[in-house]
């Protein structure tokens, strides 16, 4: 149905139009002049309006006035009162955000949760702005053990079946574990989640030996568990935040299951797992005085030598061993912090910019006559008319396009950047 105002107007036919006949008709010979034309006019009921008549030159009594054939009026079936039209799949109740009004419009918990998970999959940036409302709605809806079990299962299935949702699913699990108020005897949200993961974990050896589909599902579970280990925060009795030790032990056993069945996709999953969690796992093992990572690297080297895996997979394994030998790419401070100088830091000049003299000869800060050449460069004012030595713009008003650009970072990026700065400062002071 069309909306208001979409009804088609009746067709109007002007003189000389496609639907109008202009050929004059002669009356019967037996009738007096003009009689037949008058009778025809009474039958056709032609309006007397001048626009519906066609005048022709008078040809005498033998020629009657012309007549006009009127086309029937087309009656439209469209109505101005028809309901408003919406494309298929469009829900007019949630034009802006389907989760701002809570559970309005949803019949079941499954529909509401699944819709939010799909929405989060398509727009992960909405996590920060909508997660609080989502949790509040769940607190009013999830009031039984069965509902909590259903919620855990929906999130688990989404995190292990939808590509790239494992990280977002782990963040969602961490938030709900701290903000859901229901705490039944069967276990709170986090406990039920770990119980659900344990079901898959206990079947690890059979899954690693299974067919292609079984292994693919198992690998999705492994990577989700790795994200849970990194994102699920456990608050201690003294307020300290730690990671779940049960996940730490579980990841070690999952690695053993993968390396015990060294087919290509099992080994690729193991590489992804160690790239994701290797540094954190090794630190945790070292705190307990264990050398499990050394044993894991030895197993990788044995696989490279003995397993019938592809050449590309062997290259991946060797790259992983190389990554671990560089402390997982982290800069490890072996001595107290001191300011870097050309004398104590061999890489001091590595990131220095390259300049060019007036003759086009390149030079850097490592050159003996750097100061002299650089001073000569500064005196060439034509190259730097509006800038100080440190690059500050002195020209006043800048480009209006660049001035209008918002310099604020996304909240998620800003949080990660602050965390990075704090970790760097902590390592520097060690």
TrEMBL record:
Record's keyword annotation contains Cytoplasm: yes
Sorted alphabetically, the keyword list is: Cytoplasm, Translation regulation
Q: In terms of domain of life, where is this protein from?
A: Eukaryota
Q: Which InterPro entries match?
A: ARM-type_fold, MIF4G-like_typ-3, mRNA_TranslReg/HistoneTransl
Quote the subcellular location field of this record: Cytoplasm
Tell me which Gene Ontology terms the entry assigns under biological process: regulation of translational initiation
Q: Name one GO cellular component term.
A: cytoplasm
GO molecular function, a single term: RNA binding
* Residue ranges of every copy of the MIF4G domain listed in the record: 110-327
- Region annotation (Disordered) maps to 1-63, 387-407
Entry-linked SUPFAM superfamilies: ARM repeat
Q: Record's PANTHER family?
A: EIF4G DOMAIN PROTEIN, POLYADENYLATE-BINDING PROTEIN-INTERACTING PROTEIN 1
The protein in question is named: Polyadenylate-binding protein-interacting protein 1
Source organism per entry reads Nothocercus julius
Lineage runs: Eukaryota, Metazoa, Chordata, Craniata, Vertebrata
